[in-house]
């Protein structure tokens, strides 16, 4: 079997990183050779781009500029980390990928950019490569944002550029993810993230076992 590329998506505070940790423990137990990574900031250069993108005021750049920087980060991530790992037969689990750009820079901003432009950037940065499986952790943004602000209290550097946006923006984002899943139901699995951590983990493992026969 070809090593799969699995992505986790969702709004703020949807619990992606916790679920990726639990999934990592499970994959280790199963003896799977894998790496975990993230966007933005999965590479050394990407860490610098991440700082520009997630810190500071919400209006310091517009959605076009963000899309360009996220795809620059993505291109570096793919060429330096994701593709080499897959080539070595390692599974790759990524905290966010291109669905984030569609959900955030397109849907959350009320579809001000054109989806054709985003598709064009995707082709330029990634070609016709796609994730094998995408988990979309769905949560009411009111609950997600509360979780996210609580987490930010413990951070020395506040990555709250998006958290500070209007609730409507986060609601657009949530709907955007559901639209993405509707368009690609085979690749995208939507899971209710407003549940306890273990229940969600068990659901994720069930899908992984079904798809990849572990
Ligand atoms: P994180 O907090 O889940 O690590 O993600 C960083 C922030 O960047 C989060 O608010 C989502 C945002 N983001 C985009 O707006 N577009 C993208 O393409 C990606 C990958 C992330």
Residue windows where pLDDT falls under 50 for at least 5 positions: none
Number of helices: 8
Order of helices and strands: EHEHHEHHEHHEH
- End-to-end separation in angstroms reads 11 Å
Instruction: Specify Rg, calculated over alpha carbons.
Output: 16 Å
E-strand count? 5
Let me know the average pLDDT. 96
Q: Which ions, cofactors or small ligands are bound in this entry?
A: thymidine-5'-phosphate
- The percentage helix is 55-70%
Q: What structural class should be given to the helix and strand makeup?
A: alpha/beta
Name a few traits of the molecule.
214 residues; alpha/beta; five-stranded parallel sheet; 8 helices; binds thymidine-5'-phosphate
Describe, in plain words, how this protein is organized in 3D.
By secondary structure, the chain is an alpha/beta fold. Helices cover 56% and strands 13% of the residues. The chain has eight helices and five strands, in the order βαβααβααβααβα. It has helices at 16-29, 44-54, 63-87, 98-108, 115-126, 141-153, 167-183, 197-212; strands spanning 5-10, 34-38, 91-95, 133-138, 188-192. α3 runs antiparallel to α4. 36% of the residues are buried. The site of thymidine-5'-phosphate has 14 residues, from α2 and α4.
Topology, please?
Layout: E1 5-10, H1 16-29, E2 34-38, H2 44-54, H3 63-87, E3 91-95, H4 98-108, H5 115-126, E4 133-138, H6 141-153, H7 167-183, E5 188-192, H8 197-212
Parallel strand pairs: 1-3, 1-4, 2-3, 4-5
